[in-house]
Amino acid sequence: MTIEILSIEDARDAWLNFQHDADLYAFQSYDWLYLWYQYVGRTKGLDAKICIVRCSGDIKAIFPFALQNYWGIRVLTWLGGVVTDYHAPLLSQGFNMDKGEFYRLWHEILKDPLLGSPDIIWFEKQPEFINHKKNPFVFLFKGSIYPFRTNAYHTILNGTWDEYFRAHRKSKHRSDSKRQLSKLSDRGILLFHHIEDTEDIERFIGHLMAQKEKRYKEIGAGNIFKEAPLRDFYKAVIPQLVRKRGAHFSALTIDDEPIALHFGLIDNKRFYYLMPTFNNNWRRYSPGRLLMEHLIEWCFDNSFEIFDFTIGNDDYKMTWADRELRLYQYTEALTLKGVIFKYYNQMIAQMKANKRLRAIISSIRSKL
Fold first, then answer.
1. Measured distance CA(364)–CA(368) in Å, rounded
2. Residues 6 or more apart in contact with residue 360 via CB below 8 angstroms
3. Beta pairing class for 270-278 and 306-311
4. CATH number at residue 352
5. Short-list 178, 134, 139, CA closest to 297
């Protein structure tokens, strides 16, 4: 077993060749993480540490790590930040290690000077499984593995759309969807768009961000689009991945006005329902729900097998989903500075978990 730690640019060719047959989520594609690193990671001072594990010359795994310096404390994380719902390695089809083998590998990685001598390991949003394979960073680690604050949900697309819709939604709901579509059609020309033209993508990205920012303010949530690097990331990643068939961008419009939009990833017959939004002025017609139902139907028409609602314990996700993907966090302090960082962040997490305090913060944000 050999270990190689490279920059993200130097790892490009090996990564792109490996990802075609590897077990991974769309969030671990080279294009997604490279663009995030270019627009967001570098501006935050992260140093990409791409660890390639080989056996007899063949790649067995790629671990897309990053090292970030917080006030002189070196924190080892996964690449991808907050926009990446699942942080995980890429594993070969034949990847199979017991705990002893994985521990030895992990200790060799930590000793490699090219990793940068981290003070603490901080791995969040780690899925229990990578496709059907157990995630070694969940199953093979001891100690500080504990559930992340929310899980992810998906549904298996069996049969036809009509059969699925009847099985998952009651007659009252199905009738309401039909009635809302009829009401919207009475208001103007109602169209579902699958957006692929470059000019259309640029125009609709503006609407997507505007609707999201307005919604964040209404519910008192943090606005990720206030940060220029994240805005630039989405402006770059959406057209590039749509062009490469690694993403899907859609809208529901009435007289060419977008009343609901969605950006998501697609990979290996899995559709990732990632960034939905809607125009609150049309809320009574449930445009977001209608677009989501259209996308699930589109997935049936295009032979997708999984509709992934991704991270979040939203009621609608648990209503539609028939599978839960548990997510985990792993932290390990390697130095005294790492211990300080760990307990500081645990204190912040406890404050965020305080419902009363969260309500106060949300109220303040909504008025800003």
1. 7
2. none
3. parallel
4. 3.40.630
5. 178
For helices 355-367 and 336-353, give the axis angle rounded to 10 degrees.
Answer: 80
Torsional class of 242: left (φ above 0), alpha (ψ -120 to 50), beta (otherwise) = alpha
Q: What phi, psi does 192 have (nearest 5°)?
A: -95, 130
The Cα 278–Cα 223 span in angstroms is 16
Please tell me whether residues 299 and 332 are part of one structural domain.
no
What letter does residue 23 receive in the DSSP assignment? Answer: B
Judge contact between 128 and 326, C-beta under 8 A.
yes
Conformation bin of residue 74: beta by default, left when phi > 0, alpha when psi is -120 to 50: beta
141 shares its domain with 76:
yes
pLDDT at residue 119 above 90? yes
Cα gap 105→117, rounded to integer Å: 16
Task: Identify whether residues 7 and 125 lie together within a single domain.
Answer: yes
Determine the Cα–Cα distance for residues 339 and 119; give it in Å rounded to an integer. Answer: 8
Nearest by Cα to 158 from 305, 307, 320, 16: 305
User: What residue numbers bound the domain in which 193 lies?
Assistant: 158-304
According to DSSP, residue 314 is labeled -
DSSP letter at 291 equals H
Which long-range contacts does 204-208 make (Cβ < 8 Å, 24+ apart)?
204/249, 204/251, 204/258, 204/261, 205/234, 205/235, 205/238, 207/251, 207/258, 207/261, 208/234, 208/261, 208/263, 208/275, 208/277
Q: Which residues pair with 254 in a beta bridge?
A: 190, 257
Residue 114: inside a domain, yes or no? yes
- Tokens 């993200």 found at: 8
pLDDT tens profile 16-71: 999 999 999 999 999 999 999 999 999 999 999 999 999 999 999 999 999 999 88
- Chain segment 307-322, per-residue pLDDT in tens: 999 999 899 998 999 9
Helix (H) / strand (E) element for 14: namely helix 12-19
The residues near 88 (Cβ < 8 Å, ≥ 6 apart) are: 24, 25, 27, 28, 78, 126, 127, 130, 135, 137
**Three-class SS state of 259:** strand
